[in-house]
From TrEMBL:
Pfam families: CHAD. PANTHER family: CHAD DOMAIN-CONTAINING PROTEIN, SLR1444 PROTEIN. The lineage of its organism: Bacteria, Bacillati, Actinomycetota, Actinomycetes, Propionibacteriales. SMART domains: CHAD (SM00880). This is CHAD domain-containing protein.
Length: 261
């Protein structure tokens, strides 16, 4: 990477992610196992790479593409989140020996997921879907780079990763379990993956994963409570939400040490 321009690195990373999004669409629309999750992840990765390397791509085209990707990601997320909640709910009911509650607690989530998937399929026949396809084709052919993209990729990557690590730690200082910390950690993970920095990607994933599990458990507890689940079931999920945060301070400390902060 030492003698490679940052623009070349970015072009390769963006091209690969555009291809992933295109290839992932058909399985996702067929609702194949894990396909929506994989497509959503590819969309998030591209958004985060563009954000992390924002100084090295043209601002206006990047802002337009990121806006379209955000809307698309939200559409994918609507069904995926319901799918995850249904899976988690079924698992929890098995753990507490109350599978008899599945028709009341899991079935509505699955029905809502099916409705969200129908919306997703219909969206792909819309003008917004056509606009996104055109943008992806354009970026897949040529990434609109700035002059800074001519700088050495290794130096640019070090600078970008330093900024992303500080972004995670600054948000953690304001509230360790916040939604913003989770998003910052996810962006660090995706940017680190794009430049092959496995240690930072792993730490970003660990922070993101712990906070993601915490959030999913809280959302599930809310669903169970509003659906009238027994208190023992809700308490079981709340305990899981708390334990999901075990090790989070250590993960953040490791992030500080790896990056010398």
């Amino acid at each position: 990477m030492a003698g490679t321009p940052a623009g070349e690195l970015l072009t390769q990373a963006v091209g690969a992610l555009v291809a992933e999004i295109r290839d992932g669409r058909e399985p996702a629309l067929a609702d194949e196992p894990d396909a929506v999750h994989q497509l959503r992840t590819s969309v998030r990765r591209l958004r985060n790479v563009l954000a992390g390397f924002g100084r090295y791509v043209e601002k206006r085209p990047a802002r337009v593409l990121r806006g379209h990707l955000a809307s698309y990601g939200a559409l994918l997320g609507a069904g995926r989140d319901l799918e995850v909640r249904a899976e988690d709910c079924r698992r929890v009911l098995a753990e507490v020996g109350r599978t008899d509650l599945e028709p009341a607690l899991v079935a509505p989530l699955l029905a809502a997921h099916d409705g969200a998937h129908t919306v997703l399929v219909d969206w792909h026949a819309s003008p917004d879907a056509v606009a996104l396809d055109r943008l992806l084709a354009r970026w897949g052919d040529e990434v609109p780079l700035t002059r800074r993209a001519g700088r050495r990729a290794d130096r640019v990557s070090t600078k970008v990763l330093d900024r992303e690590v500080r972004r995670v730690l600054d948000r953690a200082a304001q509230g360790e379990t916040s939604h913003e910390v989770r998003k910052a950690a996810r962006r660090l993970r995706h940017v680190a993956d794009a430049v092959g920095e496995r240690d930072l990607a792993r730490l970003g994933k660990e922070v993101q994963g712990r906070l993601g599990d915490h959030r999913d458990a809280l959302l599930l507890a809310g669903h169970l409570w509003s659906a009238g689940a027994p208190a023992v079931v809700v308490a079981h999920v709340e305990a899981a939400a708390s334990s999901a945060l075990d090790g989070l301070p250590e993960a953040l400390d490791a992030l500080r040490r790896v990056h010398g902060i």
